[in-house]
Amino acid sequence: MTPSDLAQVCWRKSSRSGANDSNCVEVAELSGGLAVRDSKDPAGPALLFGRDAWSSFVNGLRRGESSP
Fold this sequence. Notes:
28% strand
């Protein structure tokens, strides 16, 4: 996936993000998974995750799990 491909997707912030919160990430749904980027640097790099990996990550956060 190229940066121009990611420029065409619909990015969204968490509904829990405040209007002036500078520590946000944005997520975009892709056909094969999700992309995540720093909302302060929309032209910067994005991390790509498969759906299973993203679900595992989110479920782990909900359970209070973290890894170093």
